[in-house]
Amino acid sequence: MTTGTRSDLCDLMLPADQAESLKKECGPFPSWDLTPRQTCDLELLLNGGFTPLTGFLGQADYDAVVDTMRLADGTVWPMPVVLDVPEAFADSLKDGDSVALRDPEGVPLAVLDVADRWTPDREREAQKVYGTTDLSHPGVEYLLRRTNPVYLGGTLRGLSLPSHYDFQYLRDLPSETRARFRKMGWRRVVGYHTDQPMHKAQVEVAFRAAKSVEAHLLLHPSVGGSESDDFEHFARVRCYEHAHKHFPEQTTALSLMPLAPRWAGPREAVLQAIVRRNFGCTHFVVGLEQASPDQDPSATPYYAPQAAQSLARELESDLGIEIVTAPKYVFVQERAAFVALEEVRERDTLLGISREEFLRRVLHDREVPEWFSFPEVVGELRRAIRPLDQRGFTVFFTGLSGSGKSTIAKALVQKFLEQGGRRVTLLDGDIVRKNLSSELTFSKEHRDLNILRIGFVASEITKNGGIAICAPIAPYTATRRSVRETVEGAGGGFIEVHVATPIDVCEGRDRKGLYALARAGKIKGFTGIDDPYEVPEAPELSIDTSACSPEEAAQDIILKIEGLGYINVR
Ligand code: PPS
Fold it and tell me: Which atom of ligand 1 is nearest to the CA of 433?
């Protein structure tokens, strides 16, 4: 087998002049702002990384992929690549509509000529594709909790590829890696996928895989899941650059690509192989537990250890790329070398460090043994991974009007300021309503918008190491969950405090006289009276201010946050 040619790639980008004129025409088209996952998928669709797909899957292909791991025409395709949108957006479309797909700044990247709109059974998709509907599986959680309920399918006309300003010199299109291999005379190339930093064991896996099939090596880490403004992302890529230097010169290339992780184990391993074929690789390394979610070692794994290797091998003849299976390597002290697990002798002493232990060593400045990693890689991670008590966090109060949120929040701000050393921002319900959300009403839609704005500001503060204290009513579970995801996704802590003061106590206090107005029907849609408050199911802390003072409540919160590790009061 030799590296592929340019001609068999689906390049969905329009020629420059046509793209320019379509950009001008697409202003009136219905417009969809892509999510980060959709942007990654779009990039691989447009640049040919997802060849033979020519757009987001339509319903017939989707059903066939979910049921048989093949497109409707029988071509192997293991995972749905779909465009999920809310019902209201899907309902606003007419047959034959084209949708402008935009990046977060509103730049149109592509036009989707919609051929299909349907509401999939996402539980079924989870069961078939991920083998489970368990929400503790991150891919399933994403599918069932964070995707929109309607899928749009159709072909794409590409206008611009998503822009990247980070590590541009390491980003290549499939046509570029192919051209590079041709130029270098690399006829056999093994693709190696990772989304974790590479230590010595991973370097061994990649090196030995390439050696075993006498091929060159493409280190092809996926950065599709990491935000380019998250500095662990930058550290991870610098780790790849360090690891790259430990491979023999002239045999190994490093390039980044945007495949978003799904943690779908066997099916995803096959998708990873197809993508590498499109980037011009002739072989692809599949490890044990490839694309599996991180799990507590005592938990039952979602996928059997060899499942990814078996499926990739089973489909190999249809994939157009050869599968190289990699064993698990362990470090044997007496031999001072990594050895495949099946070659370990009974008298051998095995050394191992779990991911958790490695992180502990990095965080607490403890030694990381030479055999485990490279000093440059460890140094890079030590600089990037901050201990919890140096990270930002958000304290998110929720509760009825008059429950005591603002009073405790103010007391808490004072406590943090007394301790010193941390920047604190208070986003109180009333203050936000005056400054950020003055045009909003108390309809469900506007309350959600208000809370999402608070969440956005809190996540920015948290991302930059600050403490955000939010104190809105935030009556809806789904919106609070989405704020939690935004803040946690920014690498910070999220501490939800339910101020669970009973409504009769809140109403008895009626500091602003609003309950009386609501009872008299002069205010409509008042939370707790004629508008719902959904009680938090699992807040970090629940406080009833009819049973404690604001001072005591603030102290309880401080203890909770200390227990979680985000502050160190000693
Ligand atoms: S929400 O639902 O989270 O967007 O509400 P929030 O921004 O926190 O605003 C709550 C404050 O607005 C006053 N107010 C009302 N609350 C609830 N329902 C209705 N209809 C309403 N109209 C005005 C009320 O004073 C709330 O302040 P707090 O400090 O919570 O008492």
Answer: 7
